[in-house]
Inverse folding.
């Protein structure tokens, strides 16, 4: 920054626009988007906010039980845990073992000869994370005599188990009355299950035929019409098997929070205290293929998504930084710029399109005639109409130019070429149908060129090119000024 | 309000922090809270843009091709120093450099920002607005505002034909007889008496003075002075046609793009006409004649009555600077009446126009007699070298058709030239590089012949 020694007073004078600031002056104006733009942006933001809030409310209302980490955990004393149930069961002499993987729980219970201990109850939370083979093992376990309780199995789990049961509805609140013949349910009586899947017989035939099994539906949506409305609890007994497969549409009644309501505890107790040992498995994601498809997306933790969120915010900052200009582009009225020769070039293209060869040939000839006359010192104009006309279509133009006879004589004298040839070159044989050029007088043995023949061949492109070259030759032979 | 790249960089750093943090949710909130707070603090602490005052100084006019050094003075009347990025918005054709000034102005002080314009077209250039972004101490964000500080730089026609001036003046001196050459000065206006020396033309002896003085005395003559020349510029549509580049794909090296168009290069016909008119004016003023200027298309754009002031050339340049071709048909009748109204005494009327048959035949020829009756008329037309290039085109059929078309155009020009000459009009038809000297030569010839 260098400071000039003298600074002229501010520019305010005749050159400044009228109404400009006085001397010393610049006026300040607030920069930024216009009010209308701001209002529109605010409206858009408001719409987005409403959408987000609405979605959040809807998700909270419709969404199932919160899937916090403690949900249905037998070691958790929180409202979502099931520690209370586990303690009650222990008091009654049931050994409660918590696990994270069904397969390892099954392995641990297996006797050295490979046969599973049938005298047990297995509760599986998140059965959707199991692959189909473990699910079959569970079914076989139930067949062998154990009780298997699946908490909130979805339609894919049911079809993987090939049970004749379908999920008719989800997240509905079933009735409090058992309305079934299951002894445990009759004992428990009224139960608050909360929102749950509703099970019922499949309405359409599944792709894979289900296994033969007897299903008892309890806690239907409306007592008395359990077949069509679905029930919150389904108990499957397989023929020849002594154990049961219990499907709990909702697991909330097992939690510490709700265990003390109505007959919740009684139902849970009835279902789980039959055997002296209880495996309580909250299935964790495994590397095998779960029946409920889990992509890489599900394996990524919260940290990843939060990082992506922060990256998006950073991108937003980047966009704000780059999007704010340091002043708008400056408008500039531009002058019209047209190449002066464009009309001439365009006319040349029109000639080419229309194949106006006669017109083109005559133009070339006339141009050369005028140049030659200029160079040879002949008057630029002969008598009017002396040189004939050129015709292109219906348009006929009179050729004006130097007197043909004197021009041809001069050119012949200069070049030593026969006058007849020069005549043919400079005046051609005339356009077809056009009045012939008046035969020039014959001073000094000047031959009379007649038309070459009655049926003149039409000029073609090759002939036009040849003519152009020939005229160039003649031009050179006549020489400079 | 505007944020900088630093804020965006902070956002990305925050992403790294979130990725590495044990409690990413908390870090996410914390990072963004910190960024927002820092940005708000920065904006709050940034110096006020409103408190700045701008003023300009520098030349108000320059010939095209000359750089224009301007100074933008910014003073800070606020309470805080302003760390500013200042963009002085000039139109692109003003070629202002630097585009953005970065400057810190302490409170109560002022700074001088130097900028240089390199205009690429003639005409008036005005700054659009000054945009100021005042950054806060953290450099994360700042306030943005704008100021208006009007100025106008008039970019004058380049007067490339100045280089022909010495030759034209030399010829003028020959004509005036100031240079010792055989034959002496030409002209018809009585200049002075001097003694006879052997070799002088005996017809020039002034016998009356000889008888009085006793020695042989000779009359000398000089060209007439105080004649009038009126330059008439046709600014109608035909003057917009660009003439000069010999070939449309002529090489434009990287060097040629740096500055304004080369000396006598590309340009609309009007620019060539301005150039020629300026040379003619310079020579005519030196020859002691009065020069006027008229620009006309469908109506009179510019009328400068003839004068002989010393600064006429500068005034004329200034007036010419803002002339632009108008896309209207020339009204030559109106042009003639404007000329007749502007100059009562006999003048040389130089019409800078284009020999377009339709325009000239329909408009100029009927109006011409009124003009030729009172004035000497010269028509100065610019010949497009592209036409000759097209006319020489051979090789394929399309080139020959184009050549035929060009021949026709040239022939029509030739006929028109003869037509005009037949009506006693001087016609100059020259390519761009010889246009200005050809017009001046024609003027000098007329002057030497005493036809002014």
């Amino acid at each position: 920054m260098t400071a000039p020694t003298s600074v002229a007073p501010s520019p305010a004078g005749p050159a400044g626009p009228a109404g400009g600031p006085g001397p010393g002056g610049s006026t300040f104006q607030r920069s930024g988007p216009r009010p209308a733009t701001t209002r529109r942006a605010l409206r858009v933001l408001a719409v987005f906010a409403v959408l987000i809030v609405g979605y959040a409310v809807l998700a909270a209302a419709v969404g199932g039980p919160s899937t916090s980490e403690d949900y249905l955990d037998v070691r958790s004393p929180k409202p979502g845990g099931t520690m209370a149930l586990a303690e009650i069961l222990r008091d009654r002499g049931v050994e409660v073992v918590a696990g994270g993987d069904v397969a390892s729980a099954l392995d641990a219970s297996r006797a050295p000869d490979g046969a599973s201990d049938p005298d047990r109850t297995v509760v599986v939370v998140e059965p959707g994370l199991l692959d189909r083979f473990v699910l079959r093992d569970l079914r076989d376990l139930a067949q062998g005599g154990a009780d298997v309780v699946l908490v909130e199995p979805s339609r894919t789990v049911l079809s993987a188990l090939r049970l004749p049961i379908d999920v008719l509805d989800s997240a509905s609140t079933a009735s409090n009355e058992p309305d079934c013949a299951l002894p445990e349910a009759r004992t428990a009586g009224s139960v608050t299950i909360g929102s749950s899947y509703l099970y019922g017989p499949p309405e359409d035939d599944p792709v894979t035929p289900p296994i033969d099994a007897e299903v008892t539906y309890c806690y239907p949506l409306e007592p008395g019409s359990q077949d069509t409305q679905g029930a919150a609890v389904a108990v499957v007994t397989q023929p020849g098997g002594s154990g049961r497969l219990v499907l709990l549409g909702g697991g909330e009644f097992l939690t510490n929070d709700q265990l003390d309501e109505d007959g919740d505890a009684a139902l849970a107790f009835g279902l789980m205290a039959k055997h002296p040992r209880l495996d309580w498995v909250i299935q964790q994601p495994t590397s095998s293929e779960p029946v409920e498809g889990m992509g890489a997306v599900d394996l990524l933790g919260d940290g990843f998504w939060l990082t992506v969120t922060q990256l998006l915010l950073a991108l937003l900052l980047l966009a704000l930084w780059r999007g704010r200009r340091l002043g708008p582009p400056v408008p500039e009225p531009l002058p019209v710029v047209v190449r002066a020769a464009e009309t001439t070039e365009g006319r040349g293209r029109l000639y080419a399109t229309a194949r106006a060869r006669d017109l083109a040939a005559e133009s070339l000839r006339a141009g050369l005639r005028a140049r030659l006359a200029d160079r040879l010192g002949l008057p630029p104009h002969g008598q009017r109409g002396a040189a004939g006309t050129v015709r292109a279509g219906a348009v006929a133009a009179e050729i004006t130019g130097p007197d043909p006879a004197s021009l041809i004589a001069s050119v012949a004298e200069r070049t030593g070429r026969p006058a007849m040839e020069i005549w043919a070159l400079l005046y051609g044989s005339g356009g077809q149908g056009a009045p012939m050029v008046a035969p020039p007088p014959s001073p000094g043995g000047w031959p009379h060129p007649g038309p070459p023949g009655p049926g003149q061949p039409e000029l073609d492109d090759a002939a036009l090119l040849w003519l152009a070259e020939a005229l160039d030759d003649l031009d050179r032979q006549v020489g400079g000024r | 309000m505007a944020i900088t790249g630093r804020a965006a960089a902070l956002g990305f750093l925050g992403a790294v922090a979130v990725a590495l943090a044990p409690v990413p949710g908390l870090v996410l909130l914390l990072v963004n809270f910190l960024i927002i707070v820092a940005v708000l603090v920065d904006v709050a602490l940034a110096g006020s843009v409103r408190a700045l005052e701008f003023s300009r100084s520098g030349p108000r006019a320059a010939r095209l091709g000359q750089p224009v050094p301007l100074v933008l003075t910014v003073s800070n009347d606020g309470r805080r120093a302003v760390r500013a990025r200042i963009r002085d918005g000039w139109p692109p054709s003003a070629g202002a450099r630097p585009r953005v000034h970065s400057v810190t102005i302490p409170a109560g002080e002022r700074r001088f920002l130097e900028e240089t314009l390199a205009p690429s077209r003639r005409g008036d250039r005005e700054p659009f607005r000054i945009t100021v972004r005042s950054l806060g101490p953290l450099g994360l964000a700042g306030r943005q505002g704008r100021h208006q500080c009007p100025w106008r730089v008039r970019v004058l026609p380049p007067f490339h034909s100045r280089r022909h001036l010495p030759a034209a003046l030399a010829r003028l001196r020959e004509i005036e007889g100031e240079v010792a050459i055989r034959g002496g000065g030409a002209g018809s206006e009585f200049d002075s008496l001097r003694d006879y020396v052997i070799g002088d033309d005996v017809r020039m002896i002034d016998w009356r003075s000889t008888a009085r003085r006793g020695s042989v005395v000779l009359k000398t003559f000089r060209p007439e002075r105080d004649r009038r020349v009126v330059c008439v510029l046709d600014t109608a549509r035909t003057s917009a046609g660009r003439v000069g580049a010999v070939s449309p794909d002529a090489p434009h090296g990287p060097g040629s793009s740096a500055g304004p168009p080369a000396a006598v290069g590309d340009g609309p016909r009007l620019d060539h006409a301005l150039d020629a008119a300026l040379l003619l004016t310079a020579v005519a003023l030196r020859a002691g004649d009065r020069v006027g200027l008229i620009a006309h298309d469908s109506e009179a754009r510019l009328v400068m009555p003839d004068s002989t002031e010393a600064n006429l050339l500068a005034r004329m340049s200034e007036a010419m600077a803002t002339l632009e071709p108008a896309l209207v048909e020339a009204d030559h009748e109106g042009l003639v009446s404007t000329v007749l109204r502007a100059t009562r005494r006999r003048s040389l009327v130089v019409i800078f126009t284009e020999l377009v048959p339709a325009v000239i035949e329909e408009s100029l020829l009927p109006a011409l007699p009124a003009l030729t009756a009172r004035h000497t008329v010269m028509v100065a037309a610019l010949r497009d070298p592209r036409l000759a290039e097209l006319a020489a085109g051979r090789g394929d059929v399309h080139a020959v058709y184009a050549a035929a078309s060009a021949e026709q155009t040239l022939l029509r020009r030739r006929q028109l030239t003869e037509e005009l000459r037949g009506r006693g009009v001087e016609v100059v038809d020259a390519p761009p590089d010889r246009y200005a000297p050809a017009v001046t030569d024609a003027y000098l010839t007329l002057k030497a012949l005493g036809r002014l």
The longest strand of chain A covers residues 166-173. Chain A touches chain B through 81 residues (CB under 8 Å).
